[in-house]
Automatic annotation (TrEMBL), chain A:
Pfam families in the record: ABC_tran
Phylogenetic placement of the source organism: Bacteria, Bacillati, Actinomycetota, Actinomycetes, Propionibacteriales
The name this protein goes by in its record: ABC transporter ATP-binding protein
Domain ABC transporter, residue spans: 20-235
PROSITE patterns the UniProt entry points to: ABC_TRANSPORTER_1, ABC_TRANSPORTER_2
Parts forming coiled coils: none
Originating species: Mumia zhuanghuii
Alphabetized UniProt keyword annotations: ATP-binding, Cell membrane, Membrane, Nucleotide-binding, Translocase, Transport
Superkingdom of source: Bacteria
InterPro entries: AAA+_ATPase (IPR003593), ABC_transporter-like_ATP-bd (IPR003439), ABC_transporter-like_CS (IPR017871), ABC_transporter_ATP-bind (IPR050166), P-loop_NTPase (IPR027417)
GO molecular function: ATP binding; ATP hydrolysis activity
UniProtKB/TrEMBL annotation, chain B:
Coiled coil (residue ranges): none
Gene3D superfamilies referenced in this protein's UniProt entry, alphabetically: Periplasmic binding protein-like II
Keyword vocabulary terms for this entry: Signal
Domain SsuA/THI5-like: start-end pairs: 111-268
Signal peptide: 1-30
Keyword field contains Signal: yes
Superkingdom assignment: Bacteria
Protein name per Swiss-Prot or TrEMBL: ABC transporter substrate-binding protein
From TrEMBL, chain C:
GO CC terms in record: plasma membrane
PANTHER family: ALIPHATIC SULFONATES TRANSPORT PERMEASE PROTEIN SSUC-RELATED, ALKANE SULFONATE ABC TRANSPORTER-RELATED, MEMBRANE SUBUNIT
Domain of life: Bacteria
Principal cellular location given in the protein's record: membrane
Subcellular location: Cell membrane
Bilayer topology annotation: Multi-pass membrane protein
Organism of derivation: Mumia zhuanghuii
Keyword Cell membrane among UniProt keywords: yes
Protein name per its UniProtKB record: ABC transporter permease
Upper classification of the organism: Bacteria, Bacillati, Actinomycetota, Actinomycetes, Propionibacteriales
Pfam family, one: BPD_transp_1
Length: 254, 339, 294
C-alpha cells in the first residue's frame, strides 16, 4: 500500500525532540490490518487530534501507546509518564474520589495535597471524600482528568473522553481542557469522532483511513476559534469530504 | 405492570413449594418401598455381614432363611455402616433389628435407649493357641515396655468404647490413675494413622487395628487376655423383635452355633466368602490369623445368669468412669430367651 | 486554584524521576512497557496444566520406591493402581461409580431445582426475598451433615435418605449463587424487557436466567463438588455399593491403598466435573468466550 501524502508540520519531529514517536507501526488482528506502517510524531506540548471512521485503528493506536498491545512491526517510543482518560471514567467504585486520583501513587502528604490541588483545578475539591457512584457523568470524567493530570504526564492520551457526556457538559469540558492544557502543557493525543471538537481543541489533526494517515494538518487558527471563521469552515469541509460526507447537505436538498 | 407482578410472584412461590414437596414425597416413597414384604412374617433386619465370618457364610448359603421358616420369619440383609454411630442410628430408626457386637457399645446404646436387648453372649476364648484379639501397642522403636511407663504419654483409644474400657482395666491393674496418661480419643482408623506416623505414643488397638499394627512392626505391651476383659461378643435385637418372635431369635443362635461348629472344623471356608479381591478380601498373614481366630471362636449361647453378671460388671465400670451418664441394669439390658 | 497547584512541589510526586523543567525540552523516549495480556500457546497451556499433577505423582512415586514413605501412611502409586485393577476386574468399580453417580444425579437435580427456584424468587421479587432469604441464610449456616440423624429418622437408611441428603446439600449453594446472579442482572435490561412486554415466567426464562447463567453454572460446579461430600456421608450408612461405601470399607479394613485410591477417584471426578462444566459454559454461553478479564 502506498503511503498517502502527509504534511509534516511539526519541526521538532525532524530535530528529534518529541513526546511520542511511531515509526512504521503495523498491527493486524487476524486478517484485518488495523494499522499499516503508520509514522507519527508528536512534539512536546503539541495537541494532536486523531479522527477517522470507526475501525480505522484509532483505539488500537492508543492501546499501542499505552502498552496494552504490541505492534506487529515498527517502533513506538513514549515518554516515561503517559496517562490516559478513557471514554468512561473507569474509577474504582470502592475508593473515594481522592483515593481514585491517587491511584497507583503512594498516599504521602505531598501526593495527597497534589491530588487535592488537581481536584480543585477541575472544580471538585468538595467531592474529595465522595464515592464515585454518587457523581454525575461529567463530574466522574473530571475526576478521571484530575487523575491523569496529577501524574504530571508528558503525554496525555484522551480516548473519546467526552463522547458519553451531554452537549452542554461537553462544551464545559472543552473549556476546562483548554485551561488545564494552558497550565500543564503536556503533549496530548485526542481520539475523537467529533470533527468540531477536534477543530476546537487541537493544534493538529490526523485523519486515519484504512490503517494509514490520510490527512495530517496543522490548524493555524488562534483560540478561541469560531465555526464561522473561513479557515475553520475550509478545514471542516475538507475533513468531512475525506469522510465522504457532504458538508452542506441542506443546500442540495430541495 | 407493577400491580400484576405480586400475583405472578406468588404463583412462582406456590410452584416452588409444590416442587419441593413432591421431591420429598417421591424420595420418601422410594425409601419405603424397599422394605415391603408380607404382613405377618417376622423380618429380621441385619447389617451387611461383609466378606468373612459366620453371618457372611449364612448370607451366602441362605441357611438362616431356611431355618427361620419354622418360626415364620426371614432375614433381610441391609447395607454396611461406616461407623458404630451410624449403625446405632440405624438401630434406633429400626432399619437394623438384630446385630452382632460387643457388650461395651451395647451398654453405651442402652444408657440412652431401652429398645435393645442382648439375647446371646459368646464365651471368652481362653485357648492359649488362639490369636490375641487386641492389645495396647507401642511403635517398634519405642522404649516403653510396660504399662507403668505410659505415665504422661499420649495413648489413643476409642472414646467410651472397648479401647478406653480395656485401657482403664490395664491402668487399674498397674495401679495408675486414669488421668496420669493423656488419652487421645480417636476412632480406630484415625488412631491407626496417628500411631503409624508417631503422633501418639501408644494405642489400644481393637478389632482389625491390632493385627494391622502388629504386622507393621508394633510391639504389644498388654492384651485383652491380660486384663480379664468382660467385654464379650454378643447378639442383640430390638425390643419389638424380642416381643414378636423370640422363637426366631432362638433359631438364629442355634443356627450360628451350628455354623460355629463347622467353622471350628474348617475355618478357611468362612474367609473371603464372597470375593477374593477388593478391600474386604484378606490374604497372607492376615488371612492366616483370621482363620485361627475363627477356629478358636466360641458360639453364642442364649443369655444365662452368669452373663447378666458380666454385663453388670461392664455397665458399672462404664458408669463409674463416666463413659455413660446413666446406670444400666443388666436385667433391662438383656433378655433370657424362653424364660 | 492556580495558587494551590503551584504550591505543590513537583519533586514530591511518586514517579518524578527528573527535574520538571527538563521535561519539556529533553524527554527520553522509550518503548511502552507492555501491559497487555500475554497470549500463551495452547500447547504450553495444556503442558502447564498437566505439569503440577504429574510432578506430584512423580514425587509420590520416587518417595515410595526410595522407601521414604511408610506404606501404612501412604501407599505407593503401584499398589493404588493394583487396587484399582482389582476393583475394575471384579466389576465393582463400575458398579460403585454407577450407584454413586445415580444417587448424585438425582440428588443434585432435586437440590438444584429447589435452590434455583428459591433463588430466582428471592432475587426478582421483594416479597420473595422477604419470605425466603432469611430462612435460606439460616439454612445455609447449618452444616448438612448435622441433619444426618434427622434425615435418617425421617427417611430411613435406604436410597431415599441418600438422595435427600445430597439434595439437601445442593440446595444452599444453588440458592446463594442464583440469588446473587439474579440480583446482579442489569436492572436496565430488565426494565427494557418489561417495557417490551415480557413479564413473569417469560421474563425469567428469556432475560433473567440467561443473564444469571454464569453464576448458575458456578453454583452447579459447587453443588457437584459438595455432592461428593454428601455421597461420602450418605454411603457410610446402610449400603453395599458406591464410592462412599468404598471409603468406609477401606477404613474399616485399614486398606491404605484403597483409601488413597478413593482420594484419586475423587480427584478424577473433580477434574471431570470441571471439564463438564467448562463444556457446558462454552455451549450455553457463547457470548462469553474471550470476554472474561484474566
Amino acid at each position: 500500500m502506498s503511503a498517502p501524502t502527509t504534511t509534516r508540520t511539526t519541526p521538532s519531529a525532524t530535530t528529534g525532540r518529541a513526546a511520542a514517536r511511531l515509526t512504521a507501526v503495523s498491527k493486524a488482528y487476524g486478517d484485518t490490518r488495523v494499522l499499516d506502517a503508520i509514522d507519527l510524531t508528536i512534539a512536546p506540548g503539541e495537541f494532536v487530534a486523531v479522527l477517522g471512521p470507526s475501525g480505522t485503528g484509532k483505539t488500537t493506536l492508543l492501546r499501542l501507546l499505552n502498552g496494552f498491545e504490541k505492534p506487529d512491526a515498527g517502533e513506538i517510543l513514549v515518554p516515561p509518564r503517559v496517562t490516559t482518560v478513557y471514554q468512561e471514567p473507569r474509577l474504582v467504585p470502592a475508593h473515594r474520589v481522592l483515593r481514585n486520583v491517587l491511584l497507583g501513587q503512594r498516599r504521602t502528604k505531598g501526593n495527597k495535597s497534589a491530588a487535592l490541588a488537581a481536584l480543585t483545578e477541575v472544580g471538585l475539591e468538595r467531592h474529595a471524600r465522595s464515592w464515585p457512584a454518587t457523581l454525575s457523568g461529567g463530574e466522574a470524567q473530571r475526576v478521571a482528568l484530575a487523575r491523569a493530570l496529577v501524574r504530571d504526564p508528558q503525554l496525555l492520551l484522551l480516548d473519546e473522553p467526552f463522547a458519553a457526556l451531554d452537549a452542554l457538559t461537553r462544551l464545559r469540558m472543552h473549556d476546562l481542557l483548554d485551561r488545564l492544557r494552558e497550565r500543564h502543557r503536556p503533549a496530548i493525543l485526542l481520539v475523537t469522532h467529533d470533527i468540531d471538537e477536534a477543530i476546537r481543541l487541537a493544534d493538529r489533526i490526523v485523519m486515519l483511513r484504512s490503517g494509514s494517515v490520510a490527512i495530517d494538518v496543522r490548524i493555524d487558527v488562534e483560540h478561541p476559534r469560531t465555526i464561522t471563521d473561513p479557515r475553520v469552515v475550509d478545514l471542516r469541509e475538507r475533513l468531512l469530504g475525506e469522510l465522504g460526507i457532504d458538508p452542506n447537505p441542506t443546500k442540495e436538498n430541495p | 405492570m407493577s400491580n400484576r407482578s405480586p400475583r405472578l410472584r406468588l404463583r412462582h412461590l406456590a410452584a416452588a413449594v409444590a416442587l419441593a414437596t413432591t421431591a420429598a414425597t417421591t424420595t420418601a416413597c422410594a425409601g419405603g418401598d424397599a422394605n415391603a414384604g408380607s404382613d405377618d412374617q417376622t423380618v429380621i433386619k441385619l447389617v451387611d455381614p461383609g466378606n468373612a465370618g459366620l453371618l457372611a457364610y449364612a448370607k451366602k448359603t441362605g441357611v438362616l432363611d431356611e431355618k427361620l421358616e419354622a418360626a415364620d420369619a426371614r432375614v433381610e440383609w441391609g447395607g454396611s455402616y461406616g461407623s458404630f454411630t451410624a449403625t446405632i442410628d440405624a438401630v434406633r430408626s429400626g432399619d437394623v433389628t438384630l446385630l452382632e457386637g460387643a457388650i461395651s457399645p451395647a451398654i453405651g446404646y442402652l444408657s440412652t435407649s431401652n429398645d435393645l436387648k442382648i439375647f446371646a453372649v459368646a464365651d471368652r476364648t481362653t485357648d492359649p493357641k488362639a490369636p490375641v484379639g487386641d492389645g495396647l501397642v507401642v511403635p517398634k522403636d519405642s522404649s516403653v515396655t510396660s504399662v507403668d511407663q505410659l505415665v504422661g504419654k499420649k495413648v489413643a483409644v476409642n472414646k467410651g468404647g472397648r479401647g478406653e474400657y480395656l485401657l482403664g482395666l490395664a491402668l487399674d491393674k498397674a495401679g495408675i490413675g486414669h488421668d496420669e496418661v493423656e488419652k487421645v480419643y480417636l476412632n480406630p482408623v484415625q488412631a491407626a494413622g496417628a500411631f503409624q506416623s508417631g503422633k501418639v505414643d501408644a494405642w489400644w488397638a481393637i478389632v482389625r487395628g491390632y493385627p494391622t499394627a502388629v504386622a507393621a512392626g508394633a510391639k504389644t505391651i498388654v492384651t485383652n487376655n491380660d486384663v480379664e476383659d468382660n467385654d464379650l461378643t454378643i447378639l442383640a435385637a430390638r425390643q419389638e423383635l424380642v416381643d414378636e418372635n423370640p422363637e426366631a431369635l432362638k433359631i438364629v443362635t442355634d443356627t450360628l452355633a451350628e455354623l460355629q461348629k463347622e467353622a471350628t472344623a474348617d475355618p478357611a471356608k468362612f474367609q473371603n466368602v464372597f470375593t477374593d479381591s477388593g478391600p474386604t478380601a484378606t490374604s497372607g498373614d492376615a488371612l492366616e490369623r483370621d482363620i485361627e481366630v475363627e477356629r478358636y471362636s466360641l458360639p453364642f449361647p442364649p443369655v444365662e445368669d452368669k452373663d447378666l453378671e458380666k454385663i453388670q460388671v461392664v455397665a458399672d465400670y462404664f458408669l463409674a468412669h463416666q463413659f455413660i451418664s446413666k446406670a444400666v441394669k443388666s436385667s433391662d439390658a438383656a433378655v433370657q430367651l424362653g424364660s | 486554584m492556580t495558587a494551590a497547584l503551584d504550591a505543590t512541589p513537583r519533586t514530591d510526586r511518586a514517579d518524578a524521576g527528573e527535574p520538571a523543567d527538563a521535561d519539556r525540552t529533553a524527554v527520553t523516549l522509550a518503548r511502552p512497557r507492555f501491559l497487555g495480556s500475554r497470549k500463551r500457546s495452547r500447547t504450553l497451556s495444556v503442558t502447564l496444566r498437566f505439569a503440577v499433577p504429574i510432578a506430584l505423582l512423580t514425587v509420590w512415586q520416587v518417595a515410595s520406591s526410595a522407601g521414604w514413605l511408610d506404606p501404612q501412611i501412604l501407599s505407593s502409586p503401584g499398589s493404588v493402581v493394583q487396587a484399582a485393577e482389582e476393583l475394575w476386574e471384579s466389576g465393582q468399580l463400575t458398579d460403585f461409580l454407577a450407584a454413586s453417580g445415580r444417587r448424585a444425579a438425582i440428588g443434585v437435580t432435586l437440590g438444584v431445582a429447589v435452590g434455583l427456584v428459591l433463588g430466582i424468587l428471592s432475587g426478582i421479587s421483594a416479597l420473595g426475598e422477604d419470605l425466603i432469604d432469611p430462612t435460606m441464610q439460616m439454612y445455609r449456616a447449618v452444616p448438612f451433615l448435622a441433619l444426618v440423624p434427622l434425615l435418617l429418622s425421617w427417611f430411613g437408611v435406604g436410597e431415599g435418605f441418600k438422595i435427600v441428603l445430597i439434595a439437601v446439600s445442593a440446595v444452599a449453594p444453588m440458592y446463594a449463587y442464583t440469588y446473587l446472579g439474579v440480583r446482579g442482572v442489569d436492572r436496565k435490561v430488565v426494565e427494557a424487557a418489561r417495557g417490551y412486554g415480557l413479564s413473569g415466567a417469560r421474563l425469567v426464562a428469556q432475560v433473567i436466567l440467561p443473564s444469571a447463567l454464569p453464576n448458575i453454572l458456578m453454583a452447579l460446579r459447587i453443588c457437584l463438588s459438595v455432592s461428593l461430600t454428601g455421597l461420602i456421608a450418605a454411603e457410610q450408612i446402610g449400603t453395599t455399593t458406591g464410592i462412599g461405601y468404598l471409603v468406609s470399607l477401606s477404613q474399616q479394613y485399614f486398606r491404605n491403598d484403597y483409601m488413597v485410591l478413593c482420594i484419586v477417584l475423587y480427584a478424577v471426578i473433580g477434574v471431570l466435573i470441571d471439564l463438564g462444566i467448562r463444556v457446558v459454559e462454552r455451549l450455553a454461553m457463547p457470548w462469553r468466550s474471550g470476554v472474561a478479564a484474566r
